[in-house]
Design brief:
The chain has helices at about 5, 10-20, 25-40, 45-70, 70-80, 80-100, 115-125, 130-140, 145-175, 180-200, 200-210, 210-235, 240, 245-270, 275-285, 290-300, 305-335. The chain is mainly alpha-helical and about 350 residues long. The protein is globular and about 60 Å long. About 45% of the residues are buried. It contains 17 helices and no strands. Helices cover about 80% and strands about 0% of the residues. InterPro entries: Na+/solute_symporter_sf (IPR038770), Put_Na-Bile_cotransptr (IPR016833). It comes from Orbus hercynius. This is Sodium/bile acid cotransporter 7. Keywords: Membrane, Transmembrane, Transmembrane helix.
Length: about 350
């Protein structure tokens, strides 16, 4: 065997092939690396204060860019197909949270109170934009509707998610979270940059459209920064003494349960409501997704830094599971005969 042949079997290449075959999101691996970094080298003191200010700025920039990317035409197109988007909206912000509340029957025997609240937060999040559109396209669904719906979900989620989480957590856990404070914080730190970004689109749209890769890197860098700060504080407060192998197993099991239920509801619900196959695909992939890109920055605004690590852990695991399952589902839809 030649040396070139042997090099193809190096451990690094072998590991990369496994990752590709399992369809593991490379960004999730980066997130895990950041969590490990925060575990080994948590920021504290003045360094922590600096990173918190930097995080606030990065999140504001992130939502400014989200607003700038959303065109007025996509909003207008969304209004035209209102019955499809209303269905996805109900699934995202009503049915999903109700399923999350149903997990309370497993507390505390199979799910800790903190992880349960993390699932509640997961269930109130808007849909993810990029993967929802990508899977709809692969499955030969209504891509235009997916673009409109996912974009609208992100816009509405900035306001609806904190209101839902404030109401639910106040009622379920007695956290004392002030609904007014939560809304005010979201409006100033997320909604205001979003609106300013959208209003600035007429001047910066061309630059935004020609620098998509840079914008995506800004999105991901902001998320990584938030995760590092959150897990640094969580490590200092003993998160790894609260999470064990059984807890991780519980998160995986309940993530699979939630995803299975929502896929069944969206698939058969779309058929019962008389949607065609293309619209059914859009409902399935837009209704079943939960946004890591929006969820982590919003968590940093809604929750104290000390508790944020536990709050986003179910989201990080659910995110990978939804990508793997929906990749298989999209391939099956794509093979159908029209």
């Amino acid at each position: 065997m030649k040396m070139t042949d042997l090099s193809s079997y190096s451990p690094l290449i072998f590991a990369m092939n496994i990752i590709k075959s399992l369809k593991i999101d490379p960004f999730l691996l980066t997130l895990i690396t950041v969590v490990i970094l925060a575990t080994l080298f948590p920021c504290a003191g003045n360094v922590k204060v600096f990173f918190e200010y930097l995080t606030t700025f990065a999140i504001g920039l992130l939502f400014f860019m989200h607003g700038a990317k959303l065109s007025l035409q996509s909003i207008i197109n969304g209004i035209r197909n209102w019955h499809l988007h209303l269905t996805i909206f109900i699934v995202t912000f009503a049915i999903f949270p109700l399923l999350g509340l149903g997990l309370q029957i497993f507390v505390p025997n199979f799910l800790s109170e903190n992880l349960y609240l993390g699932f509640i937060y997961l269930c109130t999040l808007p849909a993810t934009v990029q993967s929802a559109i990508a899977f709809t396209s692969i499955a030969r669904g209504n891509v235009a509707a997916a673009v409109c719906s996912a974009s609208a979900s992100t816009l509405l989620g900035v306001f609806i998610t904190p209101v839902l989480i404030a109401f639910i957590m106040h009622a379920q856990a007695g956290t004392g979270m002030s609904i007014i404070d939560a809304i005010t914080s979201i409006m100033l730190k997320l909604m205001l940059p979003f609106v300013v970004g959208h209003l600035s689109r007429r001047w910066i749209a061309r630059w935004i459209d020609s620098h998509r890769k840079l914008i995506n890197q800004t999105d991901r860098s902001s998320i990584l920064l938030v995760v590092y700060v959150a897990f640094s504080d969580a490590v200092i407060n003993g998160i790894w003494h609260q999470i064990d192998a059984l807890s991780f197993t519980s998160i995986i099991i309940f993530s699979l349960l939630l995803l299975s239920l929502i896929l069944l509801i969206t698939t058969y619900g779309a058929r019962l409501l008389g949607f065609n196959k293309e619209d059914e695909i859009t409902i399935v992939f837009c209704g079943s997704k939960k946004s890591l890109a929006s969820g982590i920055p919003m968590a940093s605004v809604i929750f104290p830094v000390s508790s944020m690590g536990l709050m986003v852990l179910p989201l990080m695991i659910f995110h990978q599971i939804q990508l793997m399952v929906c990749a298989v589902l999209a391939s099956r839809y794509a093979k159908r005969k029209d």
